[in-house]
Amino acid sequence: MTLAAKTAEAAVPAPSPRPGKDGRGRSRREAGAGIVLTIPVAVFFVVFWLVPFCGAVYLSFTDYEMAGAPSWIGLDNYARMLQDPGVWNSAWITVVYTVFTVLPTILLALLVAVPLSGPGRLNRVLRSLVLVPAVMPLAATSMVWVIIYSDRGLANTLLGAVGIEPQSWLTSSDLAIWALVVMVVWKSLGLFVIILTAGLQALPREVYEAAAIDGAGPVTTFRRITVPLLRRTLLFVLVISVAGSMQAFVPAFLLTGGGPADATQVLPYYIWANAFPYEHMGYASALAMMLLVAMLVVSIVQFGFLRGGDE
């Protein structure tokens, strides 16, 4: 073979191998491994979410007192809700509780996150400290605040220091709901500070440098640059905080037991009261479906606001 022939033969690329049985076998093994890995998640979802959800939907159309078998009554439970004053009272208390825990928490978290988003060892330490209430178990937090709100607790001690009479924080129908609000704001603040701090640190520095060159002050920069750029993060915090407040049960259960005089009987507590102490499981299931629909509607409105702003 001449040198030219050898050169031409070397220049011709070798044909790529066709996928054979080994390649197809490897793909099948990978697909099988993926299915095996998803089985525990699927089983968990079906057993602990789908089956209880379907059971609750069914029970919401029945009269079930836990002493016998459920009896089908159709929409009677849902019609009963419209005439139940306890539902309307609990719905109103839930709205008040949600509004006055969500808005102050987000506002305070944003005001705290702005100075803590800067670099420095001190800010890192402060961010760690502000997260401590958020990682405490809610039951333990509630017990701590029961002590704080006691007759000789920290709250009344601080009031006495400024010459104000001690208050019955958890046994007064006028103060009990606000006592819960203060505790929940304190509990939730740290988590939202960390989320907003991460959002602030991700904002482009060039925009702030341009604003400084144009002579924008801190208030103008915060109002016209920081808040608009942080809008998606703020709406994320809003969605999770509203959903959490609408499902709140532990604070009302442990601090006040829904009282006094049903002043802190939020909807989740009213659902629990109908399901277990009164054993009206069918009616409680209908109430739970109503709460679920309300949460879905609120979430859809919030996400619609986010999508509308992006457009």
TrEMBL record:
Coiled coil: none annotated. Keywords: Cell membrane, Membrane, Transmembrane, Transmembrane helix, Transport. Residues 1-13 have a biased composition (Low complexity). SUPFAM superfamilies: MetI-like. Residues 91-302 form the ABC transmembrane type-1 domain. It is a multi-pass membrane protein. Pfam families: BPD_transp_1. The keyword Cytoplasm does not apply. The chain crosses the membrane at residues 34-61, 91-116, 128-148, 175-196, 233-254, 283-306. Its main location: membrane. The keyword Metal-binding does not apply. Residues 1-27 are annotated as: Disordered. InterPro entries: ABC_transporter_permease (IPR051393), MetI-like (IPR000515), MetI-like_sf (IPR035906). It comes from the Bacteria. It is found in: Cell membrane. Belongs to the binding-protein-dependent transport system permease family. This is Carbohydrate ABC transporter permease. It comes from Streptosporangium amethystogenes subsp. fukuiense.
